[in-house]
Amino acid sequence: MNDTLLQRITLNPHICHGKPCIRGLRYPVEFILELLSSGMTTEQILADYDDLEYEDVLAVLLFAARLSQVKSIHKIAS
What we know:
It holds the Pfam family DUF433. By secondary structure, the chain is mainly α. The chain has helices at residues 2-6, 29-37, 42-48, 54-67; strands at residues 9-10, 21-22. It has a single domain (2-67), classed as Arc Repressor Mutant, subunit A. Helix 2 (29-37) crosses helix 4 (54-67). The chain is globular and about 40 Å long.
């Protein structure tokens, strides 16, 4: 099921500057994560954005979880 969910996240250099988006729509993963982190529930997001599906939100969370599974993080000079 995880692979099926991750297929909902697409990368296209012509959509949202190549950022990971949901199903080729103009909803970047980061946007949905920001909504969730601001306190919106999945149900509220789905009510506000009719073309999104419950599985899209799950795919965003799975994608973010996979990105966080790095071995180490190195600070870049500021």
